[in-house]
Design brief:
The complex is a heterodimer of chains A (299) and B (334). With 299 residues, chain A is mostly helical. Chain A is 72% helix and 0% strand. With 334 residues, chain B is an alpha/beta fold. In chain B, a hairpin with a 2-residue loop joins β9 and β10. Chain B starts with 5 loop residues before the first strand and ends in a 6-residue tail after the last helix. The chains are: A mainly alpha (299), B alpha/beta (334).
Chain lengths: 299, 334
Amino acid sequence: MAALPGIAQEVIDETLAREQTSLWADAWRRLRRNRLALASAVFLTLLILVAILAQFWTPYSYFAQGIGPIYQGPTAQHPLGLDNFGRDILSRIMLGAQISLKVGIGTQVIVIVVGVVVGLLAGFYRGFVDVVISFVINIFYGIPDLLVALTLVLLLGRSLGIIIFAIAFTQWMNMARLVRGQTLALREREFVEAARSGGAKANRIIFRHILPNALGPIIVQATIGVPMAILFEAFLSFLGLGVPPPTPSWGAMAADGFHAIRISPHIVLAPAIALSLTLMAFNFLGDGLRDALDPRQKR
Amino acid sequence: MSQPVLQVKDLRTQFFTDDGVVQAVDGVSFDLNPGETLGIVGESGCGKSVTALSILRLVQEPGRIVGGQILFRGSDIVKMSEEEVREIRGQDIAMIFQDPLSSLNPVLTVGFQIEEAIRAHRHVPEKMALSEAVELLKQVRIPAAESRVHDYPHQFSGGMRQRAMIAMGLANRPSILIADEPTTALDVTVQAQILELLRDLNRDLNTAIILITHNMGVVAGLCTRVLVMYAGRVVESGPVERIFKNPQHPYTWSLLQSIPRLDSDRHDRLLSIEGLPPDLIKPPHGCRFHPRCQFKINRCLSDDPVLMDVGPDQEAACWVTMRRALSKNGEQLA
């Protein structure tokens, strides 16, 4: 290209080399404008810090019983009061956060790995592979989640790992179906054809071209999946099928206080509020991410 | 005459749809010599793009190549294994598409995509691939290539994206570059630049180019030989000057008539070809162009014309011209 007269080549180069804005930088910029999502992100960061802290330090031991009068309401020493065994509720909430996050994030890791791979295969290869995978997905949708999870927990035991596995077992289809749909749409895009015409191998097309383009919806789906898993675990624990006591789970804590809800509602309220705030935060963040990662909303 | 680098013989590609079998490409044959620029023209849906996709075996279900041969340096692409075709794609025969924006992956940098094209066929360390990518971008005249190589496609203008696509296509010095409507999505000044670029690359690198377009002007500007397609068939082929000066098929003639001209009288009506392209599930009997042809004779309704020599290096499939050509030589039509 011929240089324009009177303008130094460096000036032209400078002007032509514009600011680098990747899709992710764009998304981050949009997310920052969403106050609710940002507040949720801050809340969740604090929650994660608390969960990490609980690993090393809690105000009182989470399982020590009778450190004060049972059913005692909030006091200066025990800001959230004591439960039916006289255990410090704040300490148990802190450790409960750890359990909830482990369950929420753990299940989504499994869900992402299984769902994304299965969905990519079904969407990319279509035909027989898709028929089989879609059939399995539909069968899983047909079986009641609770029944599957309960059976698994009863058969395999009540450890945290088993519970995470059981919840992932009932949730992977959502991700698989989403990724399958995304892949079906993306494989028809011209850049996939262009990559193919350039001699790219199938796995390269799948993981380099299709997957990165589906990443936005996958992240959103995973973020929405976290509260679903946390709620499911709380539910299982509430039924007495969660993590075995004395490990505090928010669901189990609510169950502990349930029978005394009239005389000392704080035992139920504390985990219920913690659970609600966490679920809301994840949902708001998920919503915010959905808006931020949608390239059609270029603002 | 050197050996053709690509020979397409009686290629048939069909789409098996719920409504019936669409004969998208129905017996297309042509040769491509090294360094030649061949234009394939015709209106939408005449099988140009499917022909191009068939050459690289990129036709997707429900489409299938059902017959014919595609000989690349003597070996038949139709019969190759998927792995063998993959080796040819991008390395020996590269393709660039109509819409450069949708052909580039929006979440990957332009440089990365060029590097990928390089590394799909050669084991090149990352650093060298990057510098090769910069070289390629310079070759297609992208200014400040060193920094633009890290840009994402949306930071490129339309013309630059098409240049980047061409750079990807050239990454492995292919002997054939198939350009499927490379200028359609671009505005006219950029079109001219891209055509000039293709012409220079053809001259400097001796890359044979198959240019697919519905734009006669683009053909005139770049190609040495032209193939006119109608309804899945070649209706006329020949050197570009002959086709433009002395078209022998009524369809070619109508196409040329329907180009707006700067020097025409402003009151002249622009000629358009009446009717619609035929349904390729049930193509018309006889000559496929006869329902829209101004010159048709009775024979056109019943018999299918074949390609016959109608001039030096020029062929056409039309009963009317054939009769004229034969009577000139004093022969009788069988």
